[in-house]
Amino acid sequence: MSRIIYKIVEHDGGWAYTVDGVFSETFRSHAAALAAARRVAAEQRTPGRTEVIQYETRDGKWRVETASGSDRPETDVEDSA
């Protein structure tokens, strides 16, 4: 199972959360960024429906797979403040 860590950081004159170097929108306060990160982390863990998906690979081949709605990552929020 994969693990996703949301980190609260100062960003662009405010606060944001980041995952693997990608920043969220900027929030006015640390508390707002923390609340948003907690909400997103909880949503990430929520199971969905199992569905068949189709996508194109980098080499131009099409693949069809079944994506399990219960295959959700573990999530956590790290607060550096």
Number of strands: 6
Instruction: Please tally the helical runs, counting DSSP H or I stretches of 4 or more residues.
Output: 1
User: What is the 3D shape?
Assistant: elongated
Q: How many structurally independent domains?
A: 1
Average pLDDT figure: 94
> Could you say which structural class the secondary elements and strand pairing correspond to?
alpha+beta
| Largest pleated sheet | 4 strands, mixed
**Strand content range:** 35-45%
- Order of strands in the sheet with most strands: 3-2-1-6
Query: Low-confidence runs (pLDDT<50, min 5 residues)?
Result: none
Summarize the amount of helix as a percent range: 10-25%
Write down the oligomeric state: single chain
The succession of helices and strands, N to C, reads EEEHEEE
Distance between the termini: 28 Å
Structure description:
By secondary structure, the chain is of the alpha+beta class. The chain has one domain (3-79). The protein has one helix and six strands. The strands form two sheets. The chain has a four-stranded mixed beta sheet with strand order 3-2-1-6, covered by helices on one side. Strands 4-5 form a two-stranded antiparallel ribbon. The protein is elongated.
